[in-house]
Amino acid sequence: MSFSSPASVLEAELRPDRPPVLHVETPVDAAGWAAGHREALRAQVTEHGALLVRGLGLREPDRIAAVFAELGGPLMAEREAFAPRESHGPGLYSSTAWPANQPMCMHHELSYALEVPGLMLFACPVPPAGGGATAVADAEAVLKALPAELTERFEREGWLLTRSYNDEIGASLAESFGTDDRETVENYCRAHAIDFAWQPDGSLRTRQRRAAVVRHPVTGRRCWFNQIAFLNEWTLAPEVREYLVDEYGEDGLPFNTRFGDGGPIGEDVVQLLNATYEEHTRREPWQAGDLMLVDNIRTAHSREAFTGDRQVLVAMAEPQRLAEYGPSPKGSRR
Fold first, then answer.
1. Residue 247 has what pLDDT?
2. Within the chain, where are the H helices?
3. What are the transmembrane regions (predicted)?
4. Radius of gyration over alpha carbons of the chain, in Å?
5. In angstroms, rounded to a whole number, what is the distance separating the alpha carbons of residues 229 and 274?
6. Please, where are the H alpha helices in 158-266?
7. Which of the chain's termini has less CB crowding within 10 Å, N or C?
8. SS3 20
9. Distance between CA atoms of residues 49 and 146, nearest Å
């Protein structure tokens, strides 16, 4: 099926159950190929929300970084990470450290930050033995499919992310903020509408309210854009949630989400969100050397459980500061 843009000379295979897949012959100079086809590739991402390119032979970090730079421009340094990553050079990271037997459900990268990546870039040097797809879901379709009463509340109130930083679970202060210097962390929080409170044991707790529905900066269409389900306690495996609550208490979980007014989000809401995502999920198993481009605002992505080794390198580009973001609620410090 041909892409309709007159500037495009590429054809991607379209199927309803997977992202568009473009098959190419492995070029000698992958970065040069990417530069020459950037406009056509980005046009497909704009139209479809995601594109998987197969055949580029992306195995080495230097080669991957060069392709990413041609397609996305300057790569972003990650801040406010919720879990550790390994750095492979400026703006080039491993996928998030997360147990292989636990899926990472649908989310939009850094949707809780004031400045979010407009484009996500993935490359797979080593595919897993089984599972492990980076699946995608259309945020416009998900928004339309959710009950109006629920989305109207989230659109009215936004959503609240609470975090408790420690050195055992999730990203540490240094991993999340790039430093563990208190003054630098506090200045970052003030500049990014994050309420913070240091605990007696020296740990940090934060709260930040963000919009749950935003307008796409290019298309103007409304998108369900958040990490309400993924970072909520009810998405965790029951035994993991039980351990964390026993260890840290209800208010000390490494991360959790609430309604924008601070009210708890019930398990039934989280199950509904994840079920709606699943109804709109498209997936394609990774093959060695694959490239995937994802419009981070239009399209949610996930990482499915897997077996064997799995190496996926990730970059974020085209930072966007979305106007619909709201400040943290008054009096929300703890």
1. 87
2. 30-36, 38-48, 61-72, 139-145, 148-157, 173-177, 182-191, 238-248, 267-279
3. none
4. 20
5. 7
6. 173-177, 182-191, 238-248
7. N
8. strand
9. 19
**Token pair belonging to 311:** 């190496």
Helix (H, G, I), strand (E, B) or coil at 18: strand
Beta strand 115-126 with 311-321: parallel, antiparallel or unpaired? antiparallel
Average of per-residue pLDDT across 229-235: 95
Number of C-beta neighbours around residue 249 at 10 A: 10
Three-state SS letters, 173-231: HHHHHCCCCHHHHHHHHHHCCCEEEECCCCCEEEEEEECCEEECCCCCCEEECCCCCCC
**pLDDT tens-digit profile of 260-271?**
999 999 999 999
Task: Kindly state the average pLDDT of the residues 201-205.
Answer: 92
Q: pLDDT confidence of 9, banded at 50, 70, 90?
A: low
Look at the alpha carbons of 137, 134, 313, 108 in this order and tell me if their dihedral is positive or negative.
positive
Q: What is the pLDDT of residues 164-194, one digit of tens each?
A: 998 777 788 999 999 999 999 999 999 999 9
Instruction: Determine how many CB atoms are found less than 10 A away from the CB of residue 17.
Output: 8
User: How many residues comprise the chain?
Assistant: 334
